[in-house]
Amino acid sequence: GQQVMQxxxxxxxxxxxxxxxxxxxxxxxxxxxxxxxRPGGHPVFLIQLVKSGEVKKQKRLTxxxxxxxxxxxxxxxxxxTTDVGTYFCAGRNYGQNFVFxxxxxxxxxx
Amino acid sequence: NAGVTQTPKFQVLKTGQSMTLQCAQDMNHEYMxxxxxxxxxxxxxxxxxxxxxxxxxxxxPNGYNVSRSTTEDFPLRLLSAAPSQTSVxxxxxxxxxxxxxxxxxxGTRLTVV
Lengths: 110, 113
Known about the structure:
The complex is a heterodimer. Chain A is an all-beta fold. Chain A has no helices and 11 strands. Helix content of chain A is 0%, strand content 55%. Chain B has strands at residues 4-7, 10-13, 19-25, 31-37, 43-51, 54-57, 64-66, 76-78, 87-94, 103-104, 108-112. Chain B is built from no helices and 11 strands. Chain B starts with a strand and ends with a strand. Classes of the chains: A mainly beta, B mainly beta.
């Protein structure tokens, strides 16, 4: 079945440094979503990407969908302590349910 | 607007006991789903429903039952709890299975001893 992987599993950064997490699917995706989960919280939707090569920005967050629609990335510029949490990608293969990656846990040292 | 409400927030069960995790949404969403979250494994889909009266299995359905008698409610039943079912359970809803964001409940932390 479809598999979604994320790297790295953990990332520790100093406040102000940039951060990137990568998501890779074993199959071509129709769309991909990103979620953020704060420690002890529940996943919260960030964004959805649909088009090949699509790039979307939300303030300091930049999301990309690969040309082949099999990978995606989330980049945070100048991290802040409020960025702490686990970032999940969830990929959907046409007509199927979303499959979540294992997540990247980000810690930000002040 | 409450969104997705899960109860209870915490539960301890003995091996072999049964229980029902409750999930209710007030957004009139057709699609509802249950996930379990284990360390390092992300969220795995247990069961889902595309509307009242329709349910289907996800990736890890064994040991769980669901029903969807109304649009609002989607309870998850553990038939005979096992230690392997110790996990955090999330219910989610969305207006459509493929194109819209999922709204998650606060989660239920279940421990089976």
